[in-house]
Amino acid sequence: MTMNDIQDKHTSVSDKIPAAAILASLALIFSYVEFLFPLSLGIPGIKPGLANIVVVVALYKLGVRTALMVNVTRILLAAALFGSVFSGLYSLTGGLVSFAVMAALRKTNLFSTAGVSMAGGVFHNLAQLTVAALIIESAQILYYFPLLLLAGMAAGLINGVLATWILRTLRNID
Amino acid sequence: MFKKADIFLAILLLTLGFGLLALLQGFSVPGNSVAVTVDGELQGIYDLSDNRVVQIESANGHNTMEIRDGQVSMTEADCPNGDCMEFGSIRHTNQVIVCLPNKVVLTIRGSDELDSISY
């Protein structure tokens, strides 16, 4: 397994599986680090979501289907290893909504990688907030809408810039 | 690295985020009571002027809320993450503390006097 295998866009689906597995493991490690060292910024539940750097790289390097595989595998494994059914469903909602938004925006070709990731971060948080409001059957939690919007924007932007650098480096290795 | 659409989206999000934030701050006044709901059902309303510790039992778990000097905080929770204790203290109207696993919501309520003044 070399970097070239990860990069090649013309390989078949079965050839992408090893690459997807490696990226899912990498994303899982990012999630685990965040789990071990939670970043407390005064607003509970706000995380940098570093695993999404990997998802964005996968989206641009390997395409929608493989990136989705990486994303879902990472979320399910994280929930099974150091999460719960509750945290897993919660993170799956955010992960899938943000992924759908990122895949759609990428297709328009109007946005840069960082812009796509920024939108993904925002929709990740808004999806989770909506689920939270439904779970607790109370709209009061929407008080945090503006804060979560801005936090998702900042995290998505930073992750997107990092993903851009990684993608650029991968291209240079080519 | 950035495209025109990125900048447009960023400005839109920043305006929306900070606009709503300013709006919330503008309408925020110190409250006078805290409402406790579990599973969307009102469990009780407590005056902020009385210092006290309230045990909140629910089908999902157990939480402890403390009212001290007009501020409300969650001091104990049996949920795995304990996110609700990270909210810190709240005292302004519409501020909330949420314990998602136990479905407990604490909301600061405004004073009724304010309504009578506006008449």
Characterization of this structure:
The complex is a heterodimer of chains A (174) and B (119). Helix content of chain A is 78%, strand content 0%. Chain A has one domain: Arp2/3 complex 21 kDa subunit ARPC3 (Orthogonal Bundle), CATH 1.10.1760. Chain A has 174 residues and is an all-alpha fold. Chain A is built from seven helices and no strands. The longest helix of chain A has 29 residues. With 119 residues, chain B is of the alpha+beta class. Chain B has two helices and seven strands. The N and C termini of chain B lie far apart (55 Å). The C terminus of chain B is likely disordered. At the A-B interface, helix 5, helix 6 and helix 7 of A face helix 1 and strand 7 of B.
CATH A-level architecture of chain A: Orthogonal Bundle
- N-to-C series of helices and strands of chain B: HEEEEEEEH
> How many strands of chain B?
7
Distance between the termini of chain B: 55 Å
Helix content of chain A: over 70%
Chain-averaged pLDDT of chain B: 87
CATH class group of the largest domain in chain B = Mainly Beta
The tally of structural domains of chain A comes to 1
| Overall geometry of chain A | globular
Determine the number of helices of chain B (DSSP H or I, runs of at least 4 residues). Answer: 2
Q: What summary fits the major beta sheet of chain B?
A: 4 strands, antiparallel
The largest beta-sheet of chain B arranges its strands as 2-1-7-6
Chain pair with largest interface: A-B, 37 and 37 residues
Strand percentage of chain A lies at under 5%
CATH topology of the largest domain in chain B: mini-chromosome maintenance (MCM) complex, domain 2
